[in-house]
Amino acid sequence: MGLALHYHPQPDGSVAAGFLGHCALEGYPGLLHGGLIASLLDGAMTNCLFARGLRGLTAELNVRYHASVAATEEMELRGWLEHEAHGLYQLRAELTQAGAVKASATAKFMKSHE
Question: How far lies 49's CA from each of 72, 83, 90, in Å?
């Protein structure tokens, strides 16, 4: 099982993927669960690293919920690498739906040696 998102590199160096949720992913009726939103944002940032041939482990994750996310409507996820220094990567991500940013995140990832 998995969410089966397919990320694509973008001209600005970010990665993007579309996602269509399901009512089984609701936290409240009709709304995507906040924990899943955090996981989707974390995954966008992780895939941004993968697209650059990098591997990292989430060390810190900060999520901001701007508005509710409809569970069964198409959404887009994007992740960007902001900074890299001393084995620490700083990234950001956004979840948009119907053209509006519904959630965003920043994170620090530790370089993985696996």
Answer: 28, 11, 10
Question: What is the domain extent for residue 94?
Answer: 15-111
Q: Does the pTM of the predicted model rise above 0.90?
A: yes
Tens-level pLDDT at each residue, the chain (114 residues): 578 899 999 999 999 999 998 999 989 999 999 999 999 999 999 999 999 999 999 999 999 999 999 999 999 999 999 999 999 999 999 999 999 999 999 999 999 876
Using DSSP, how many helices (H) and how many strands (E) does the chain show? Answer: 1, 8
CATH code at position 80: 3.10.129.10
Q: How many domains does the chain have?
A: 1
